[in-house]
Specification:
Helices cover 82% and strands 0% of the residues.
């Protein structure tokens, strides 16, 4: 079995950074577009119901994330880490592109908000799989000595997402004007979002499989029901959930609360 070259695990880390960044890109973008999306996809409802329906679409990605983690986690444990990351990047990128091209309520009626919810669900499934799958693939490729640095590269996705979303939104509003942005400009931002997913997808399709996973398969150490293995470490699992809960509420509450 050939040695993993540094270029391969750094590229894996960059691909995870890009897809993780898309999560934050979507959070900030959808939050800033909520008023526009409400008018385009829920125009027949009263203001309160339309607002609840719009933020319900936002929340859909979070509701289905645990399911995405289970589905893509199973794929990663049974069929390979790289396979799982290719599929979840495809789901995130394709769903974001489809939202950017989605007809409005005025064009196709009630099918528009239904499709919006479904596409947000697909995004959530992909992000749920990426949260653990992308990190697992990149970290298992890297030697233990450099894993902290690989982890740092992956988490920098938040930084580029915040900067890029803000810069592109200002650019699109200036280019299209307020009325043009409400009809076309917001779509351009969603279409642009597919570019990082395509780059990540290309890296992953050309990348190597995790040697740790291949070794586990060779030794017969993979589980038929991988999620069952989590319960062996239920206390650690619970502690991790509690640690992340506070950080998650702080970050998402702050980034999703603003003028819309």
């Amino acid at each position: 079995m050939s040695e993993i070259e540094p270029r391969e695990y750094w590229l894996a880390a960059i691909s995870t950074m890009l897809v993780w960044g898309l999560e934050y890109y979507d959070i900030i973008l959808f939050s800033s577009l909520a008023k526009i999306l409400k008018g385009l996809f829920f125009p027949e409802a009263n203001q309160l119901i339309a607002a609840v329906a719009t933020w319900g679409a936002f929340a859909t990605t979070y509701v289905v994330r645990p399911l995405g983690a289970l589905v893509f986690g199973y794929v990663g444990d049974r069929y390979g880490r790289r396979t799982s990351t290719v599929l979840d990047a495809l789901a995130v990128g394709a769903a974001g592109l489809a939202i950017g091209l989605l007809p409005t309520y005025g064009q196709i009626g009630v099918a528009a908000p239904v499709a919006l919810y479904l596409l947000r669900g697909v995004q959530g499934l992909g992000i749920g799989g990426e949260a653990g799958g992308g990190a697992t693939w990149a970290l298992e490729l890297a030697p233990k000595a450099v894993r902290p640095y690989v982890n740092g590269v992956m988490y920098s996705g938040l930084s580029w997402a915040v900067f890029l979303t803000s810069a592109l939104t200002l650019w699109a509003r200036g280019l299209f004007g307020e009325s043009g942005f409400a009809s076309l400009g917001w779509r351009v931002l969603y279409v642009i979002g597919v570019v990082p997913a395509l780059i990540a997808l290309a890296i992953r399709m050309a990348g190597p499989e995790s040697r740790e996973w291949l070794d586990a398969v060779r030794r017969g150490r993979t589980l038929k029901v991988p999620v069952a293995g989590v319960w062996r470490y239920w206390a650690n699992f619970l502690i991790l959930i509690l640690i992340n809960l506070g950080l998650t509420l702080y970050f998402y509450g702050g980034s999703a609360t603003g003028p819309t």
